[in-house]
Amino acid sequence: MKPAAASRRRAPSVEIVTIGTELLLGQLVDTNSATIARAMADSGVDVYAKHSVGDNAARLEAMLRGVLDRADGAITTGGLGPTVDDLTKEAISAAVDGPLREHGPSVLAIEARMASFGRSGPLSPNNRRQAFLPQDAVVLDNPHGTAPGFVAVRADGKFIAAMPGVPREMAPMLAEKLVPWLVARYGLRDAIFTRTLHTAGIGESDLDARIEPLFRTLENPKIAVLAHDFRVDVKIMAKAADADAAAKLTAPVEAELRERLGPSIFGTDDDTLASVVLARCRERGLTLATAESITGGAVADALVRVPGASRVFRGAIVAYDDEVKRALLDVDEALLRQHGAVSEAVAGAMASGACARLDADVAVATTGIAGPGGATPSKPVGLVYLAVVVSGREPAVRRLTSPGNRDDIRRRAMVAALALLLRELTIEAAH
Amino acid sequence: MKPAAASRRRAPSVEIVTIGTELLLGQLVDTNSATIARAMADSGVDVYAKHSVGDNAARLEAMLRGVLDRADGAITTGGLGPTVDDLTKEAISAAVDGPLREHGPSVLAIEARMASFGRSGPLSPNNRRQAFLPQDAVVLDNPHGTAPGFVAVRADGKFIAAMPGVPREMAPMLAEKLVPWLVARYGLRDAIFTRTLHTAGIGESDLDARIEPLFRTLENPKIAVLAHDFRVDVKIMAKAADADAAAKLTAPVEAELRERLGPSIFGTDDDTLASVVLARCRERGLTLATAESITGGAVADALVRVPGASRVFRGAIVAYDDEVKRALLDVDEALLRQHGAVSEAVAGAMASGACARLDADVAVATTGIAGPGGATPSKPVGLVYLAVVVSGREPAVRRLTSPGNRDDIRRRAMVAALALLLRELTIEAAH
Predict the structure, then answer these.
(1) Which residues are B13's β-sheet partners?
(2) In A, which residues are within 8 Å of B319 by CB distance?
(3) Interface test with A, best of B15, B18, B27, B312 (most A CBs within 10 A)
(4) Is A146 on the interface with B (CB under 8 A)?
(5) Closest partner residue to A358 among B37, B305, B324, by Cβ?
(6) Is a pLDDT exceeding 70 seen at residue A18?
(7) Fewer Cβ neighbours under 10 Å: the N or C end of chain A?
(8) For B305, what's the count of Cα atoms within 13 Å in the CB-facing half-sphere?
(9) B3-18, pLDDT tens digit by residue?
(10) Which residues between 204 and 243 in chain B have a beta carbon less than 8 angstroms from any beta carbon of chain A?
């Protein structure tokens, strides 16, 4: 028998509260709450719910009291700034019955930060307000901004944590200050470890059908299917005390998924289509280039995002104008006249031209009609041709017809171009 | 005296509830709630709060009852799918005391949709479940998926709306079905009209200091400052019965802001740096090209995103390798040897080379060190040079040193390249 899980402490529960009127007007997409939710999952803390409220002290206080009725703690972001709109501390102070007091070390830290910007002298009343914290709160230092975060603990042991709303201040405070505090306080052991399998070239419903029996019956690890960015990811989430224990739970499930999904799986975890394409090229000593019309440089940009791309990637020619296709990619004028720029023949010629002009072993080319203008009866908006040339062979061409708007069509063409590159590099390797 | 606003009905209030365990694990950033929040602001509905809950019927029911205690309605997304995890309807049914009944027209609509995919015959029990709706609910058709949405009204007049979680199904249902229902039910008149002024080349704190007195005293319209993507936007939000009335409130505030912020304001509303650069070029009959190293095609991609870019934009050379800078941009080998690829001299030569090779009147060039590798003692990670050539004149060069990671450094270089292009096109026009 396994050691009884019940002998461990129950996992603590929290709810996440993001604060700011701009969140309720829809002018800002809240990314903080997803960052916090992931960190809680990784630490074995249950997240019961997430909330966003405006800069309204009464509603915030009521919300926080409600959260502490249901969960062990509230984790808040936002409303710690120097302006009168920033009411978070008053609401937290009321919800935990801990009056606000000036926190001496925070005054000094704020003064030091102001001085580093060349502003010396006494703090303005607004800046001084940032150093008022609920009595006995645990202070979470903020090396990336002026407002310190804190954790205030109520007499019954329930807590409210407050962090700034600016993601680049919040994220390090969460990872370096708040999570260690939670781990120590609750003696956390079990965490959720996620293994992600990235697929390309398979639709969500087809993928679902192939793995559905597995999906239904599993408890630990669980499986989730997530379609995004014109691809589908499969996540295996294991609850375990450490990474090794999680790997033992995950491995047989991953093997089963690989059996069912085969070569559709192109990478895991932090891999991207671009990073795997670059790795395949590097393994085989091949250099890479792109020739882009409809994608306008987006394929090159995705490749250059990957650190170390320079060892493989030579460059790109974005031939948006047909004259540029002729002058810089040596696409035959007759080909353009006969087939038009959006054609299988021109896509192939562009890829060959990129190999020659950029002195690369492998190239991908994109041409298409992104709309809203430019369509003809035989060439509708959404028509895209992609071509890949590997080591001087005949171009491999793919034709797509994409629904959606200009952004969707261009983005899908970019993802499909990388997927075609990967397929051709894989087929090539099998020779 | 103005007609008393109090004689109008009070604005209805809602809270938004997005449903799905994946939201609480942080594996998906919730964009639906921002879409709904914007639509509510545009329609004059107050949003008191937003919440996300997992696929847990008891917690969802408690949450919905709480929402109806505070607000006139709840707007939910997610959990309407065909699987057993999808518990939204049971929870809503309990919260409004309206039992679930099979809805005949929805059965037919689901059958028709299945048939269009080539699947005929009787519905599976899971698909049939999707046609069960709370008794007397108003059905919101879903032309983009199988699960219909609905609005269930409780005996006291409070309502719960349910829409699918897939954004491309939710967004049209919201705009075409739910908003008209709200407008009719509450006789909505006042809405929030937002006018956005986009700035570049001015920091958030500097901008804040210049407009702060205005910001403090205004009630209608209100002003909000939003830093994002290495730029700052100023939003003017007017509450008014229609666009004309909003424009009358907004115009004097916009004039005052333009007085204080001057040429930092480069555009309004849907304008982007790229769209304004293209418009300036088109007005003056100039063609445009880019020569990119550190940005790797991202500047070209931003330009091509704009519909109609082809009238101005010729193309780009992404010269990631120094050999490509020599071969395709005619950068002098001696220059590369003497100054290195990341230098003012090479940036200027790249811009000139792009004008010549791509036969363009205007070009921007980017070169820099994005990290994590590639730094030298005199050239740290984050060092970027940008150059713009207009109509054969001497290059205008800008040097940046950016903090942050590879993505931040590259993205900031892209935005700064477009801002430098715009500045040089503006100076040029003033000659």
Answers:
(1) B46
(2) 315
(3) B27
(4) no
(5) B324
(6) yes
(7) N
(8) 19
(9) 333 334 578 999 999 9
(10) 224, 226, 228, 235, 237
Average pLDDT value for chain A: 89
What length is written for chain A? 431
Nearest-angstrom CA–CA distance, B80 and B146: 9
Domain boundaries, chain B: 5-186, 191-268, 273-430
CATH number (3.30.110.40, 3.30.300.20, 3.40.980.10, 2.40.50.100) of B5-186 reads 3.40.980.10
Q: Where are the alpha helices (DSSP H) in A238-385?
A: 243-261, 273-283, 298-304, 322-329, 333-339, 344-357
Interface of A with B in 102-121 (CB under 8 A): none
Contact B193, B238 (CB under 8 A): yes
What is the CATH number that goes with domain A191-268?
Answer: 3.30.70.2860
B300 closest CB neighbour out of A31, A50, A296? A296
Cα separation of A316 and A298, whole Å? 10
Instruction: Say whether pLDDT at A153 is over 80.
Output: yes
Q: How far apart are CA A389 and CA A420, in angstroms?
A: 10
What is the CATH architecture assignment of B273-430? Alpha-Beta Complex (3.90)
A30 touches chain B (CB under 8 A): yes
Query: What does the pLDDT read at residue B347?
Result: 98
* Contact flag A319-B315 (C-beta cutoff 8 Å): yes
Residues of A in contact with B314 (CB under 8 A): 320-321, 323-324
